[in-house]
């Protein structure tokens, strides 16, 4: 599973960016494996999706493929 797959559980990039209060461009970077969320944001994302922080990082790594 990649980050884009996780995001689709919430909705569009715009919807998730509004929830997390980040730009759509940063979400795009996470989805393309070009960047990682900062520690505090990583915690917020993992709580939102109900998965571990490591799962989030792995999903971003999987997005590189």
How would you summarize what this structure contains?
The protein has 65 residues and is mostly helical. It has five helices and no strands.
Radius of gyration: 10 Å
Count of beta strands: 0
Average pLDDT: 94
Order of helices and strands: HHHHH
Cα-to-Cα separation, first versus last residue: 11 Å
Count up the helices: 5
Helix content: over 70%
Q: Based on helices, strands and strand pairing, what is the structural class?
A: mainly alpha
**Shape summary:** globular
Low-confidence stretches: none
In terms of DSSP E residues, the strand content is: under 5%
Sheet with the most strands, sense and barrel status: none
Structure description:
It is built from five helices and no strands. Helix 4 (39-49) packs across helix 5. The chain is mostly helical and 65 residues long. The mean pLDDT is 94. The chain has helices at 3-10, 13-20, 24-31, 39-49, 53-63.
Q: Keywords, please?
A:
65 residues; mainly alpha; 71% helix; globular
Write the layout of secondary structure elements.
Elements: H1 3-10, H2 13-20, H3 24-31, H4 39-49, H5 53-63
């Amino acid at each position: 599973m990649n980050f884009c797959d996780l995001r689709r559980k919430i909705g569009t990039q715009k919807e998730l960016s509004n929830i997390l209060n980040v730009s759509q461009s940063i979400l795009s970077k996470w989805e393309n494996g070009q960047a990682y969320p900062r520690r505090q944001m990583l915690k917020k994302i993992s709580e939102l999706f109900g998965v571990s922080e490591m799962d989030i990082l792995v999903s971003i790594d999987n997005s590189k493929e």
